[in-house]
Design brief:
By secondary structure, the protein is mainly alpha-helical. The protein has 10 helices and 3 strands, in the order βββαααααααααα. It has 3 domains: 3-102, Arc Repressor Mutant, subunit A (Orthogonal Bundle), CATH 1.10.10.10; 107-150, Arc Repressor Mutant, subunit A, CATH 1.10.10; 152-206, Arc Repressor Mutant, subunit A. It has helices at residues 30-35, 46-71, 76-85, 90-102, 108-121, 126-135, 143-147, 153-165, 172-184, 189-197, and strands spanning 3-8, 15-20, 24-29. Strands 1-2-3 form a 3-stranded antiparallel β-sheet. The chain starts with a strand and ends in a 9-residue tail after the last helix.
């Protein structure tokens, strides 16, 4: 099968269009163009066409993966899912993720620590932090190390209470609302109780 024309895509950076006889079109990257030493007039066999398509798909997954993590931080699992959702084969998505991890561009532990810092600063407790790590696809083996970066629960609770009460001593109804809010945010009952009791008086035991 002879190559009739090679041109750069006008719509996608880094993509090369290889026009084959019989109105067949190969969409590859510049990497495949150089690696296979393609040029107009070259006669390539069907096996090479298949290999070109496979290599191009892998390269496309790498480029797309790099663009995705440049736009926003992601875990390996999140990135792999997004690549599959965009049409990448499982093997190509996994290879792209592994490649980024190997070159240090994708680091689940660093990502997990960033999540812990962000959600702790937003006033969330350990239970919610764990839920977020799980939702983001961070491996459980990284949770403890990431959570070690979280501030003390009492410190975060005090900050949430201060923001809600604005220096006023809450009455019983307000204390119950604060209690519910803090529990929903993932703080342990013992920490919530201690913080509210420190405001004065004692709150219910159960």
């Amino acid at each position: 099968m002879k190559i009739e024309k090679i041109e750069k895509s006008k719509h996608k950076q880094g993509r090369v269009l290889v026009h084959l006889e019989g109105d067949n079109l190969l969409r590859i990257t510049e990497d495949e163009l150089l690696r296979f030493d393609l040029y107009p007039g070259l006669d390539i066999d069907p096996g090479t066409v298949i290999e070109l398509r496979k290599c191009a798909a892998r390269s496309e997954a790498r480029v797309r993966a790099a663009n995705m993590i440049a736009a926003r931080p992601l875990s390996k699992q999140e990135l792999q899912k997004r690549l599959r959702d965009k049409g990448a084969a499982d093997a190509d998505a996994e290879a792209a993720v592994d490649w980024l991890a190997d070159i240090g561009a994708l680091d689940d532990l660093a990502y997990a620590k960033m999540l812990v810092r962000h959600y702790s600063a937003s006033g969330y407790g350990e239970a919610r932090l764990r839920d977020e790590l799980r939702r983001r696809g961070v491996g459980r083996e990284l949770w403890d190390e990431a959570l070690a970066d979280a501030p003390d629960a009492a410190e975060t609770i005090a900050r949430v209470i201060a923001a809600r009460t604005r220096g006023k001593v809450p009455d019983e109804t307000e204390r119950k609302k604060l209690s519910g809010l803090l529990l929903r945010r993932g703080f342990a009952w013992r920490d919530v109780k201690a913080a509210l009791n420190a405001l004065g008086g004692e709150i219910w035991e159960d």
